[in-house]
Design goal:
The protein is mostly helical. The protein has one domain. Helices cover 68% and strands 9% of the residues. It has a two-stranded antiparallel ribbon. The model has no long low-confidence stretch (mean pLDDT 86).
């Protein structure tokens, strides 16, 4: 006797007709995929931040002799190209 809670109300899945069982399976697949996507997004955000940090370190080393204003300009260009740091 499996039970689920949906919108704050408890339901007995044994009493579900075929249509309800199909929707329940689809809902469970969606929830599993959403969890996978959240995990993948977290991994990608971590990698994105590491690459951005490494790029900034390289740029800072290359531009060490340049003025502070030039370094800020490079950062603005990265943001303008969609690289969020």
């Amino acid at each position: 006797m499996a039970k689920i809670t949906l919108a704050g109300k408890e339901y007995e899945t044994d009493n579900f007709d075929d249509a309800a069982k199909g929707h329940l399976r689809a809902l469970q697949v969606c929830e599993a995929k959403m969890l996978d996507c959240k995990s993948e997004l977290s991994i990608l955000q971590t990698a994105h931040n590491a690459y951005a940090k490494a790029l900034l370190e390289i740029l800072d080393k290359d531009q060490a002799a340049s003025s502070e204003t030039k370094t800020e300009s490079i950062g603005d260009e990265l943001v303008n190209k969609g690289i969020m740091i």
